[in-house]
Amino acid sequence: MGITIEDMLTVSKTRYGMELLAGANGWSNSISWILLIEDLKILNNFKGKDLAITTGFGFQDEGSQLKLVSNLIRLDASGLIINTGMYITEVPESLIRYCDENNFPLL
Length: 107
Hints:
Strand order of the largest sheet: 3-4-5
Number of strands: 5
Order of helices and strands: EHEEEHEH
Largest sheet: 3 strands, parallel
Structural class: alpha/beta
Strand content: 15-25%
Helix content: 25-40%
Distance between the termini: 22 Å
């Protein structure tokens, strides 16, 4: 048995202030690998059940964030961690809704 989104959140909630913003129905998604993603080219390396992490450098507008998530869902990714701060200061409501509608964990 591997690590899940639930495990990731449990370990990281207090230490890093990570929270589940959307996709609670994907809570039990297993994670096979973790990949940093700052542009869509890295999607060629996704094998399924990968957890994506981004600072948002290449996804600063709402449209590019939605495109990223739709591609991750298509590739059967486990979820997405957005490290808010420099490039993305606030996660758009439309992205949260989209992730909820698709049971895709957004942390």
